[in-house]
Amino acid sequence: MFEARDLSSPVAAVRDEHAADAQVYDCDRDFETLPPAQAEELGLVVDALEPASYPADWLPADAPQLLARYASSDLTIGMPGDGSVAWTRQTEPPVVIVKPRVEGSPEAFVDFLLAEAFVEVGLDVPEHFLGFFEDRYLELDETVALDSNGTYQVAAALYDGWVGLQTREVFADWHAGTDADTDTDTATDADAGAHPELADAWQDAGNRLEDRVSGLSRAVARGETDFADATELACASIKHAIELPAPFAALDTEAYRDHGPEYAIRWAEKTFDALAE
């Protein structure tokens, strides 16, 4: 089910800097959430399993079943929206899992996804949006005028955007100590945080998103993109330092980074009030 993955030198360096004890495995099957039996197989390759759990009263009555399972004491590895590389601190040491869906992706992009996972593990941020919103998820649910799945998607996006405000500072520093006109082999020990290959992959991924993001507001207004999908794309772009259109630009702020859930809920209130007009 799980096979240890070799890392390129730049990715291994990022792991050493941000999550030195993390283990990395390829999974032999694709997943959004691992079935319990498969999740427990991680116990064969780690020292301990410590399932996350949250109070049931943090969830609305119509919460998606997977979210209710994640909040319970069941070991739940991977959730919708995690993407091609998932990580968890419900294991000791932390584990990063690469899904088969990465096959065919450029190697540089996969390296970026792995490096991003190590940076997130090192930030000690919550593993999932439920640990971010906590009991205020009920307030967000009341504010977002969508069904339970749409609310889940918006919540996951808002959390992703908040994390992206922090990780992009690290990504930008990957260019530190290098000069476009200078051979990077001349970097000194003081430039140990410089990872130009990963920085280029981060920028390239952002460039691929720019055209899609710039037209988001118009696409939502014309009904070509639903609001939850637009929020997901916009928030995923925050980590790439892409300029966002309204109303998503209000999430690309220090205020959001500093005030987190409170700011996200206020943004949702103002945004859905405007959409209702």
What are the SSEs and their pairings?
Layout: E1 2-4, H1 9-18, E2 23-27, H2 36-40, E3 48-49, H3 65-71, E4 85-88, E5 91-92, E6 95-98, H4 107-123, H5 129-133, H6 137-143, H7 148-173, H8 196-214, H9 216-221, H10 227-238, H11 254-276
Parallel strand pairs: 2-6
Antiparallel strand pairs: 1-2, 3-5, 4-6
Description:
This protein has one domain (2-276). It has 11 helices and 6 strands. The chain has helices at 9-18, 36-40, 65-71, 107-123, 129-133, 137-143, 148-173, 196-214, 216-221, 227-238, 254-276; strands at 2-4, 23-27, 48-49, 85-88, 91-92, 95-98. α4 (107-123) crosses α7 and α7 (148-173) runs parallel beside α10 (227-238). Pfam families: DUF7089.
Distance between the termini: 51 Å
Q: How is the main sheet built?
A: 4 strands, mixed
Structural class per helix/strand content? Answer: alpha+beta
Work out the strand percent: 5-15%
